[in-house]
Amino acid sequence: MKENIVIAIRLTLVCLLFFSGIYTCIVLGIAQVAPNKGVGALVKHGDKEYYSNIAQKFTEDKYFNSRPSAVGYNAAGAGGSNKGPTNPDYLKDVQSRIDSFLAHNPGVDKSAIPSDLVTASGSGLDPHISPQAALVQVNRIAKVRNLSVAKLNELVAAHTEKPLLGYLGTERVNVLTLNIALDLIK
Amino acid sequence: MISKKINYSIMNSEIVGILAMFALLLLLAIPLGRYIGKVFNLETTWLDSIFNPLDRLFFRLSGVNTAKEMNWKQHLTAFLTINLVWFLLAMFVLTNMSWLPLNPDGNPSMSADLAFNTAVSFISNTNLQHYSGESGMSYMGQLVLMLFQFISAGCGMAICAVVFFAMKTQSESENGEKLLGNFYTLFIRSCTRILFPISLVVAVLLLWYGTPMTFKGKETMITMQGDTVQVSRGPVAAFVAIKQLGTNGGGFFGPNSAHPLENPNYCTNIIQTVLILLIPISMVFALGYILKRRRLSWVIFGVMTFGFLLLAIPSVVMEMKGNPAIAKLGIQQNMGSMEGKEVRFGSAASAYWAINTTCTSNGSVNAMHDSVTPLTGMFAMLGMMINAFYGGVGVGFLSFYIFIILAVFISGLMVGRTPEFLGKKIEAREMKIAMIIALLHPFLILVGTAISSYLYAHDQATYGGWLNNPGYHGFGEMLYEFTSSSANNGSGFEGLGDNTPFWNIACGIVMLLGRYLPIIGPVAIAGILANKKYIPESAGTLRTDTTTFGVMVFAVIALVAALSFFPALTLGPLAEYFH
């Protein structure tokens, strides 16, 4: 028993050194030669840099709106709503998001609103929307920015990321890079 | 017409995506199983030139005598002693994080009850988190938790190897006790030769796809609309690799792998999903290699896979179909039920992950389980209630072993033969242990849920704030929490306000019992059986490597799980579904 305790303590310290220390240092060392030195993917816009994977709050009519966030797009305290699928309060929230969307996008039929646009993501930081969610906002943005619908449709198509290798997963649009491109249109 | 076409292609690519994950998993698990078998058998492998010197260094620094073989009791003593040391280390670090180094965000130390819960959670390979990583954990804390992700997984694998050895018909014995290898050797080899190299490769892959690995603190930035936000970062890539591989779960960030820095794209999602099941399945093939009974491992794999698919397929279908309550609001649900899910994964990959993570003891999430449709929530709970369809690294097989013992005994009685497993007679003592372990899991879950429901219902003033959702779903939140604790899973219906003394202590105790007794039990059974006389197989032996026996094991699992949990599920997710 005593022998076990001594070994256990020594072995734990050796493991601590190796798995918390050396393993971390190796990955950290490799991070120094990785893209962006291991701080995450960044995207430049003018003199500013943003995290391309972190959703920003886009609620203004001139921008493609992001998905709702249960944590107010707080990237230092991410999270979902954790509302159950049949929770009446939750369904009221979704209804009010639908109403608000219809008010900001006159002429859009309710059945054309994709659910990802009115439901909160798991992290509250989902950087993407579905292509349909982008397309359904095109008329509004065209009017606000005085651009042609066709041009905006093209922009959305150009920013639509295909499934991995063409066959795996979802199609999606990164709202941040789409809006950056939108701001760059003269 | 055009939109229909788009839907069709999305639907297919989502399904093709999860098929690819499963195919890739099998492609990797079969050779890895062989490799794990060789590592446990102390055979030579191509990585020896690196790891032989490393292991020798480990042994010398910690004073381990690798030549000393142990019997099953000595294995358990070594296992429990080192786990106690880990608990004390974890308690110390978690309650002193605020002044220890590597705390750039100035996060606080934990209260005693939260530290107890977290310490137990990480040494028991559960990784239930009643805190949120961004604000409740310093980088030092995260690094020490990462240590436990390696060593709790490694010792699960070591103890599983002990049971494999005990199932061998020939091994050396001392004073009538069979010798089953050296615990420390098995443990270190699991950590250095299996967990470490795979984690390293995966961490680097994640890094390349944009997962952060830095000791810098939060960054403040101004968004395009002019809001000021802070972005949490940290040594994420190293942490995520091992938390997925060691069926640890949890996450660096609060929402785990739903967080876009923790799991940036579909490709990282494939990697992380495959890692969840990789070692649990490989262990089954390692069994076949060590015992030289390939057929037996295919039968076990078949039963596990059948059960897994029974839970996974309907979950994927339910989530892709969408939430009926949302459909009533008249909007489009082409992507399926999207509350709590991320667009880059979609509903199919999220539902598939949910079943992966609950069938094993992983418990990290890439979508919020509290928001999935009622039946998917139920299938996730069932995965944890059964806890043997693949199961956690090492311990998953131990749970399955209990069901094998029960099935051998029951089928023996049914056909009127002596119940024998691999040439050893199963008698009353082993059956008693097996029954206690099989019933412990429902006992912990149902008693815990009953107590919490009582408190909630009878003292709304004190406990009314627990639940984030009313009615059946609220009950489901409590049931899920105890299920997850007892299964050492760690996922949650996270709406539950669980950082309170009641939940911290109750879940802590359940996790302790749910970890250590289901390890002690199977090791004891296997050890006792190993010491018995070997009866050569004959025409009268009940064969255990046949489909018939596989069906029998599945029936036992279904009976134990269905009978004990059906009433509770009826009050929770089933009621919510039919309401």
Short description:
Chain A is mostly helical and 186 residues long. Chain A has helices at residues 2-31, 88-104, 131-135, 138-145, 149-159, 175-184, and strands spanning 42-45, 48-51, 128-129, 160-161, 172-174.
Task: Provide an overview of this structure.
The complex is a heterodimer of chains A (186) and B (579). With 186 residues, chain A is mostly helical. Chain A has two domains: 1-39, no CATH class; 41-184, no CATH class. Chain A has helices at 2-31, 88-104, 131-135, 138-145, 149-159, 175-184, and strands at 42-45, 48-51, 128-129, 160-161, 172-174. Chain A has a three-stranded antiparallel beta sheet with strand order 3-5-4. In chain A, a hairpin with a 2-residue loop joins β1 and β2 (48-51). Chain A is elongated and about 80 Å long. Chain B has one domain. Chain B is 65% helix and 3% strand. Chain B contains 19 helices and six strands. Chain B has helices spanning 2-40, 48-62, 72-95, 112-123, 133-136, 139-167, 183-208, 236-245, 266-291, 294-321, 324-327, 346-359, 374-386, 395-415, 428-458, 460-463, 471-486, 501-530, 547-578, and strands spanning 173-174, 177-178, 219-222, 228-231, 420-421, 424-425. Chain B has a two-stranded antiparallel sheet. In chain B, β3 and β4 (228-231) form a beta hairpin. In chain B, α6 runs parallel beside α9 (266-291) and α10 packs antiparallel against α13. Chain B is globular, with a radius of gyration of 23 Å. At the A-B interface, α1, β2, α2, β3 and α6 of A face α1, α2, α3, α6 and α7 of B.
Rg from Cα of chain B: 23 Å
State the helicity of chain A in percent bands: 40-55%
**Number of extended strands of chain B:** 6
Number of domains of chain B: 1
**What kind of sheet is the major sheet of chain A?**
3 strands, antiparallel
Large-scale geometry of chain B: globular
- Based on CA inertia axes, which overall geometry of chain A fits? elongated
Number of separate helices of chain A = 6
Estimate nothing, just give the exact number of structural domains of chain A.
2
Order of helices and strands of chain B: HHHHHHEEHEEHHHHHHHEEHHHHH
Order of helices and strands of chain A: HEEHEHHHEEH
Percent range of helical residues of chain B: 55-70%
